[in-house]
Amino acid sequence: MDLNSLDDRAKLANLIMPHVEQVPDGILKQLMLDRLHSQTGFAPRGRAQQGRRPGRSEQAPGQRKLPGLVARLVATLIQQPGLVERLSPEAVSELVADDYAGVLEDLVRYVLANPTADAPELLGRWVGHPFETELQQLAGRRFGLGADALAEDFTDGVGRYLAQRARAHRRTVLADLKDQPTAENLRRYWDLKQTETGGD
């Protein structure tokens, strides 16, 4: 591993943390956490004090949670990163458009750039992130589907997600234009109309 690489540092932290969590609370555990932080730059939230990973019931009120469809797609992608290859080039291009920076989009971008990435590597990128615990739980989700059915479910789900995202974007553009009828907002609305009608 190259500790100058953020991805490798995240992977290292993700690999070591389960072992550190098994150590009883005390000075040794604190020293191990401090060493992990000095080597990787990741400081597990509250783990030095609690000595365990926070569970679902310990999340703060109002903490964000991935929507159902996104959670399903993320769980599938973490377990089967190769399914990105089953998406059409148009779907991939739309999914990784620069305007969007969600968890699903980030995972797809990373898998495209790192085709051999596996679940531990993908999860390692989210150490210390607000969605870390949820992503680890999603990685263990079971679907009860065969390989072909799971691939079809994933591609269909991505299509539904992109349609939902496009509708939300349209609502935002229209609301911005209504609230502030500026030349910039009018241009954004016109660009959206051109995209929807194929430039006609």
Short summary:
Helix content is 62%, strand content 0%.
Describe the structure.
The chain has 200 residues and is mainly alpha-helical. The chain has two domains: 45 residues, no CATH class; 129 residues, DNAb Helicase, Chain A, CATH 1.10.860.10. Helix content is 62%, strand content 0%. The protein has ten helices and no strands. Helix 4 packs across helix 9 and helix 9 packs antiparallel against helix 10. It is globular. About 9% of the residues have low confidence.
Shape: globular
How many structural domains does the protein architecture include?
2
The CATH topology of the largest domain: DNAb Helicase, Chain A
Contiguous low-pLDDT stretches (5 residues minimum) are 45-62
Radius of gyration: 20 Å
